[in-house]
Design brief:
Blueprint: H1 7-36, E1 39-44, H2 52-67, E2 72-77, H3 89-94, E3 100-104, H4 127-146, E4 150-157, E5 161-165, E6 179-182, H5 185-194, E7 197-200, H6 203-211, E8 217-221, H7 222-227, E9 236-238, E10 246-252, H8 253-257, H9 261-295, E11 299-301, H10 306-327, H11 329-339
Helix pairs in contact: 2-9, 4-11, 5-10, 10-11
Length: 341
């Protein structure tokens, strides 16, 4: 390569050539590293993987991986594996313990009352109205989360809420006999006003109370109950169609902002696909849940006793009025629209 050079000079020339070659390789590696580096988002839900929230996170992870060719990877924790319930998820995300999660919206109403919209009693009684109401509310959800440093990804509508109980409910006179787990502040207020001894408890605390026989009733959907096998303790389900609540999947805003614009578009497209998939799942979810519940010995009362529904509806009026005052005119307008459907 360098004929005629003395050996020391030849050695030095070869060293220079080697260093130059290594520098070129290093430059190439450094130039492509950002394009091949992975972003990993740790997300969680307090519900089992076969629950509608768990299905949503699994679906989202699959869509994100496909759309970003693995650049963004979502790893999920189910069934409150991380000991972070829905109400704690925003703080856990901001603290860096998770990138985001799928949280039951009612438990987030402490952040902003508007996030409790979907748990208002007897406001929606069909999938179509629930979908339209949440589309109208979405900008309000996004604003409430953004103010806390969170980015909304997608919304999951749950099957209608009913009452699981230890004994059959024949009418309003049975309500004072219930030590009941409610799923947010709104529902706790309504259940107490109707005559039940109700308290808002995260799922883990509620299950502990059930196993210790401090509770004898749960306000939740067939989906929430079936995923937790509530039939082991509460073999009766009364279809009161209390609400069609939602859970909200979100990620920390700065984690989303760190992605390039093309990657952001793909993640949002994956979120939109997940939302549509969840809506399609909802179409048959109630009938599938009821079949599974009956297979496990649950006795389903449908329709619910009229006096029971009347007690709940009477108790709901003041709770809705108080919520409208807290949530503001934009949210109140959605309530008014839903009432007219």
């Amino acid at each position: 390569m360098f004929p005629g050079l003395p050996l020391p000079m030849l050695f030095l020339a070869n060293r220079i050539r080697t260093i130059f070659a290594l520098s070129v390789v290093a430059a190439i590696v450094l130039s492509i590293a950002p394009a091949t580096a992975q972003v990993v988002w740790r997300m969680t839900t307090e519900y089992p993987q076969n629950n509608i929230s768990g299905v949503g996170l699994t679906t989202f992870a699959n869509y994100v991986a496909a759309r970003t060719s693995g650049f963004v990877t979502v790893t999920n924790a189910f069934d409150n594996e991380l000991k972070i319930n829905s109400g704690e998820m925003p703080r856990a995300a901001l603290d860096g313990r998770i990138a985001g999660g799928d949280a039951f919206a009612g438990a987030l109403s402490g952040i902003d009352p508007v996030l409790g919209l979907s748990t208002l009693p007897f406001l929606v009684q069909s999938v179509d109205v629930a979908r339209a109401a949440n589309l109208r509310a979405r900008p309000l959800y996004e604003k409430a989360l953004a103010a806390r440093g969170l980015k909304l990804l997608y919304v999951t509508i749950w099957p209608a809420t009913g009452l699981w109980s230890e004994r059959p409910l024949e009418g309003a006179d049975d309500l004072p006999k219930l030590n009941l787990r409610a799923y947010d502040a709104n529902s706790s207020e309504v259940m107490r006003a109707a005559g039940a001894n109700a308290q808002f408890l995260p799922m883990d605390a509620a299950l502990a109370g059930l196993k210790e026989h401090r509770l004898n009733a749960f306000l939740t959907s067939g989906d929430g109950g079936a995923g937790r096998k509530l039939w082991d303790f509460l073999p009766y389900f009364t279809a009161i169609n209390y609400a069609m609540p939602v859970s909200i999947a979100f990620v920390r805003s700065d984690a989303f902002a760190e992605l390039s614009e093309p990657m952001q578009r793909e993640v949002l497209a994956a979120a939109a696909e997940t939302e549509q998939s969840q809506l399609a799942l909802l179409a048959h979810r109630t009938s599938e849940n009821y079949a599974r519940m009956r297979d496990n010995g649950v006795r389903i009362t449908e329709p619910a006793p009229p006096s029971l529904i009347a007690a709940f509806r009477n108790a709901a009026a003041d709770a809705i009025t108080a919520w409208e005052k807290r949530a503001g005119t934009g949210a109140a307008a959605i309530v008014e629209w839903a009432r007219q459907q």
